[in-house]
Design goal:
This protein has nine helices and 15 strands. With 310 residues, the chain is of the alpha/beta class. Strands 1, 2, 3, 4, 5 and 11 form a six-stranded mixed β-sheet that branches.
């Protein structure tokens, strides 16, 4: 397998900036790809060791392209995550003013983050989606569009200038990126982890989702992301992408996943990995009755009862 990481390219994307924050990225060949799917397929086919792709932003939630690939594509596993604060610059060819901008472009995930700015400053400009923000900058360089929303750092790479900087509708906007590889044994718990899974219901019925979520809540596990995605089996058929606090090695998480596997026709484990937003010292203590020690003590009590030693 190639000692390379693929990522959503071309060069100059926020994805590349976030990827370079991983220490191991300095020892890998970084290979841009034209889409999330092609980045992940390179890993599935053994052409790359791992792929680095966006999965969630704080304005619109889950990145559906990535989620759908992890839900429906050949199985992969999340190893790491990185959070990156996002602000945009309006990149134009040198000499272009606001009054000359008729078309703008960027990745679709960028539009909700600059919508109000665009309405206030360029109300008549036509939006066209690009494969990535950096690809939008490349298209401006080629003359296909007048301006692109991208990172200010992409301007020099594509011979553009930043007409406006610090553009964002939401303060403290962040995007979450994940390093994805082929299925393997999860890293040992760090003390501040999250577990990602996809759940399918056996049948649609009142309280069905509540029953699934009860496997987590009954064990004191907090959910950090819950997003439904269509299964492709018809209107009303959905699976659920979930991020939950904790590691599969934790007794409460293992029991929750065991319970879900019993009642769901399919459960896809996407990995247990360190959280990027906090350190181990910041993790809340387990709720009463949900620590590993309490699970072990309860199991030992049941075993004693079964042996008549209660």
């Amino acid at each position: 397998m190639s000692a390379s990481y693929t990522y959503l390219g071309p060069e100059g994307t926020f994805t590349e900036v976030a990827l370079r924050r991983l220490p191991e990225a300095a020892t890998r060949e970084l290979v841009p790809q034209v889409s999330v799917q092609s980045a992940l397929d390179a890993v599935r086919d053994g052409a790359a060791e791992a792929a680095f792709v966006p999965i969630e932003n704080s304005v619109e939630g889950g990145i559906t392209t990535t989620l759908d690939e992890l839900v429906a594509g050949r199985p992969l596993m999340i190893y790491r995550e990185v959070l990156l604060s996002i602000t945009f610059a309006l990149l134009v060819r040198p000499g272009t003013g606001l009054d000359a901008i008729r078309t703008v472009t960027a990745h679709p995930a960028a539009q909700p983050q600059v919508r109000n700015w665009l309405k206030a400053r360029l109300p008549d400009a036509r939006w066209e989606s690009a494969a990535s923000n950096a690809d939008g900058a490349r298209l401006v360089q080629e003359g296909r569009y007048d301006a692109a929303f991208a990172g200010e750092f992409a301007a020099a790479r594509y011979g553009l200038e930043a007409l406006e900087t610090g553009i964002h509708d939401a303060e403290n906007a962040q995007t979450r990126f994940v390093l994805v590889g082929r299925p393997a044994r999860p890293a040992a718990p760090s003390g501040a982890d999250k577990t990602s899974v996809v759940l399918w219901q056996r049948a649609d019925h009142p309280g069905g989702l509540r029953d699934l979520l009860g496997e987590f809540s009954g064990r004191g596990i907090n959910l950090m992301l819950l997003q439904s995605r269509p299964t492709g089996a018809g209107i009303g058929n959905y699976c659920f992408c979930i991020d939950a606090e904790g590691h599969i090695a934790d007794r409460r998480m293992a029991e929750a996943l065991t319970g879900l596997k019993r009642v769901c026709p399919e459960v896809r484990f996407l990995g247990s990995y360190p959280r990027a937003d906090i350190g181990a010292a910041d993790v809340r203590p387990p709720f009463a009755g949900t620590s590993d020690e309490e699970f072990m003590a309860a199991a030992e009590w049941v075993a004693r009862c079964q042996d008549g030693r209660f």
